[in-house]
Amino acid sequence: xxxxxxxxxxxxxxxxxxxxxxxxxxxxxxxxxxxxxxxxxxxxxxxxxxxxxxxxxxxxxxxxxxxxxxxxxxxxxxxxxxxxxxxxxxxxxxxxxxxxxxxxxxxxxxxxxxxxxxxxxxxxxxxxxxxxxxxxxxxxxxxxxxxxxxxxxxxxxxxxxxxxxxxxxxxxxxxxxxxxxxxxxxxxxxxxxxxxxxxxxxxxxxxxxxxxxxxxxxxxxxxxxxxxxxxxxxxxxxxxxxxxxxxxxxxxxxxxxxxxxxxxxxxxxxxxxxxxxxxxxxxxxxxxxxxxxxxxxxxxxxxxxxxxxxxxxxxxxxxxxxxxxxxxxxxxxxxxxxxxxxxxxxxxxxxxxxxxxxxxxxxxxxxxxxxxxxxxxxxxxxxxxxxxxxxxxxxxxxxxxxxxxxxxxxxxxxxxxxxxxxxxxxxxxxxxxxxxxxxxxxxxxxxxxxxxxxxxxxxxxxxxxxxxxxxxxxxxxxxxxxxxxxxxxxxxxxxxxxxxxxxxxxxxxxxxxxxxxxxxxxxxxxxxxxxxxxxxxxxxxxxxxxxxxxxxxxxxxxxxxxxxxxxxxxxxxxxxxxxxxxxxxxxxxxxxxxxxxxxxxxxxxxxxxxxxxxxxxxxxxxxxxxxxxxxxxxxxxxxxxxxxxxxxxxxxxxxxxxxxxxxxxxxxxxxxxxxxxxxxxxxxxxxxxxxxxxxxxxxxxxxxxxxxxxxxxxxxxxxx
Length: 720
Known about the structure:
Blueprint: H1 2-20, E1 27-29, H2 30-38, H3 47-58, E2 63-65, H4 72-83, H5 92-103, E3 111-112, H6 115-123, H7 131-136, H8 154-166, E4 173-176, E5 201-202, H9 206-230, E6 240-243, E7 246-249, H10 252-255, E8 267-271, H11 281-295, E9 299-306, H12 309-315, H13 323-338, E10 345-354, E11 359-362, E12 377-381, H14 383-387, H15 395-398, E13 401-406, H16 410-415, H17 420-438, E14 442-445, E15 456-458, H18 466-481, E16 490-495, H19 504-518, E17 524-527, H20 533-542, E18 547-549, E19 563-568, H21 577-584, E20 588-592, E21 606-609, H22 612-624, H23 632-637, H24 640-650, H25 658-679, H26 682-688, H27 704-708
Parallel strand pairs: 1-2, 8-9, 8-12, 9-10, 12-13, 13-14, 14-15, 16-17, 16-19, 17-18, 19-20, 20-21
Antiparallel strand pairs: 3-4, 4-5, 6-7, 10-11
Helix pairs in contact: 1-3, 1-9, 5-9, 8-9, 17-25, 18-21, 19-22
């Protein structure tokens, strides 16, 4: 594609050179120009260098004419396009012909006039819009008048603008229109208006000419790149449109019409609501996702929250002085977990811990942390959570494609509180509203446990670290060589954040039922820590259950390798990553027959139960038998490589009919306008639970005083 851009540069220069040399009879054959370009093969990749050399050539007042000989570099381009699997069926000659046709569909020609004529004409053009576009509106449809938006070619166009301004004769040039809009021709005789060949002269100052050249160049570049990517065809026109109030930037949706997540080098920003060392799913899984997307040659930026020292002590049990210090910790943990260095960018946005919600809330507009140049694809981990109180630019206005991944069943948590059914019904509508306001193109539910959301689909897009699969292979070898001796010297355990909503209510119930039915307790070791640690421990002791609490650990801890059976009775999880990790490590998993466990049912070591009696049967089977080793296909299903492939496939942009998309976009836009208006009102934010002083971003993440000014005020739906 870099060479495709070179074609555009040379074609533009070739046309401009023809204009400069119009009054000269001296000509240069095309093959001589081609030979000079071919002598600089190592500099093709740089459009600016090629532009300079071609411009230098044309400044000799030579005119390109003659042969239709295909340059050698066009043959190389054809070879490279096929080599990169763009699968274009047309020949190099057809490509060149199509390029020339497209470039000449709206050509520029120059004519020399007296400086006084140009000056006087320009003075009469001072209206609300440039005179050129005012005249074009009389003979062209609105669609053809769209101006391309700023994009990656802005730097080149700025340099082109400087070149134009340095030409002493440019201020004395005008464009003249002859016939239809697309028929601009050169008039070297300066005939009067009304005579043949010079109808409706349109005087332009240099600034107007530069702006026009900029706009036309943008549109042609976009159309050409679309053609070469899809095969010769019509490209998408996009940019800024004229409105009653002026110009506005066209939504990034139109810019992303031809976007594919499969493309190498695709820029992806992952935004999540937690960070290590908090060992929660929204901290671990997005981090691993970023690592494996980067491994697949995507340009990834991961955004995680930065907390005040007080909040860090609360949930991290440690204090990082700077974001750089926390980044070192995160990357070291990741390297130990995946076994390779990850080439992605890690950024921090300001956040605050809300204990009444048990989660971290963003402070200010998180989208500002991503520059416009990097804004191609956004993956919002927990899109409803990120947008409850979002005030600022709409995600779909900044990014070309927005994907949400739902991690948490917030409705189930709400139902467990006072007036839970009422809270859950309100929260359900709020989640749908904010996801529409964000403009999510796709929302991926990890399982059908969570509510339906706009444009949602279900797919398990998480995996497990290679380390756990290696442990599973080692255990399989031990089982095959054990000769009757178990490879798992320990019994039953449960691992998870200690809050009642994470399955601890169900855990105590099934353990008590087993004791009442069989007369014996099951010894269970619990690893985890959380807000309800004390109350869960007291309840287990009150019922006389054999549950031992060991504090926070994860599956990477060597103390957990020897356990044979993992119990996960939770009904609130969307999908438990701990279940996938236990299966990868070769253990039995005893879990409820629930939509959150649908992905794991086909694994031989996953034992599901529908009621408490079936739980007793499953636990007895697991304790009396040895787990079955996983085959390679089953192992691959659990890998992050397979999970990333599933994500890219399911998140690929859909093709919608224009009418259907227009109706959806209209409703989504109204949702955004209402939400953004309300979220900008401090009283509303405090009432809804955002806290005080959290609307605007912090300029300095290390400004502790600004964090201290935020008020932790409970909202009307927060638990008391």
